[in-house]
Design a protein that fits this description.
There is one protein chain. The protein is about 45% helix and about 15% strand. The protein has about 300 residues and is of the alpha/beta class. It has two domains: about 5-195 and about 250-295, Rossmann fold (3-Layer(aba) Sandwich), CATH 3.40.50.300; about 200-250, no CATH class. Strand 5 (about 135-145), helix 7 (about 150-165) and strand 6 (about 170-175) form a beta-alpha-beta unit. Helix 1 crosses helix 10 (about 260-275), helix 2 (about 60-70) packs across helix 3 and helix 3 (about 70-85) packs parallel to helix 6.
């Protein structure tokens, strides 16, 4: 068997990962494409489409927190370490998946899993090498409302860049929930966020990226002082971070409205290109689609 193809959907809590997965599955169905849907969030409870493989059948975050007295973040790390120790839970079902399927992996929202600890990178190595040989990309979602607050936006951009470096996968970075900012940001201004423009750091003093001393409120040194977190030092730090993003040009974003079929299709086309999905597909005869209709109802 040749390569398999998949995408791992990740991003901070509330970014709309599961909603995107549901929209993607719906779009794949309309395109008569098969999907193998994996939930790797041990705390997830509700799905529009039932996962073909659910980590909660192996371990749940609730049980880990109760039995081991761990917090949510520690519990999630334990769940993934346990998954790595029982890797056949995920590799055995994937052995049966053909190269016609898109493997869709829905991840939890704790970004520490992709940016600070090696458990997810280790899992990806297991999936992309050896007998499974999955050609995989990462879809990193960030909520579009972050562009209203420049501090949040650049913080999210740094997290996306950190995940890119840790996972060593082709990345498709996505601004989700675009319907929430429709009409609030002019199109010309929006382009400065799609390809992050470091001059945004200078545009909004109230963005949180410029440290302002307030008499009678702040106990830190005045910006004119020579302290480590004086105004100029803080501004220099932000400029250095912005320059890093700008010079390496690692992060740019696609726009996503999960309620818009064309928007979902456009994002899928970038995912397909990143994993080179269509290059491996053989041309089909017209009658092949008729035979596939019977299988569509059981597709995950």
């Amino acid at each position: 068997m040749g390569s398999r193809y998949g995408t791992i959907v990740m991003g901070p809590a509330g970014a709309g990962k599961t909603t995107f997965c549901s929209a993607l599955i719906s779009h794949l169905r309309t395109q008569r494409r098969s999907c193998f849907y994996i939930n790797l969030d041990p705390a997830a409870e509700e799905f529009a489409y039932e996962p073909d493989l659910d980590i909660k059948d192996l371990i749940t975050l609730e049980d880990v927190m109760e039995e081991l007295h761990l917090g949510p973040n520690g519990g999630l790390i334990y769940c993934f370490e346990f998954l790595l120790e029982n890797l056949d839970f995920i590799t055995d079902p994937l052995d049966e998946v053909t190269d016609e399927y898109l493997i869709l992996i829905d991840m939890p929202g704790q970004i520490e899993l992709y940016t600070h600890v090696p458990v997810v990178p280790n899992l990806i190595k297991q999936l992309t090498r050896g007998s499974l040989n999955i050609s995989m990309c990462a879809a990193y979602l960030m909520e579009s409302t972050f562009i209203i607050d420049h501090a949040k936006f650049f913080s999210g951009t740094l997290s996306a860049m950190s995940a890119m470096l840790m996972l060593e996968l082709p990345h498709v970075n996505i601004l989700s929930k675009m319907d929430l900012v429709k009409g609030q940001v002019p199109r010309k201004e929006l382009k400065r966020f799609i390809d992050p423009d470091i001059s945004l750091l200078q545009d909004a003093p109230d963005s949180g990226l410029v440290w302002e001393h307030k008499a009678g409120v702040d106990t830190d040194a005045h910006p004119d002082s020579k302290g480590d977190m004086a105004g100029e030092s803080f501004a220099n730090l932000n400029r250095a971070v912005g320059q890093l993003i700008d010079e390496f040009s690692l992060v740019s974003f696609l726009k996503l409205d999960a309620q818009d079929e064309d928007s979902v299709g456009a994002v899928l086309s970038f995912i397909d290109e990143a994993i080179q999905f269509h290059e491996a597909q053989e041309p089909k005869e017209p009658n092949d689609n008729v035979m596939e209709d019977a299988d569509m109802d059981g597709m995950g």
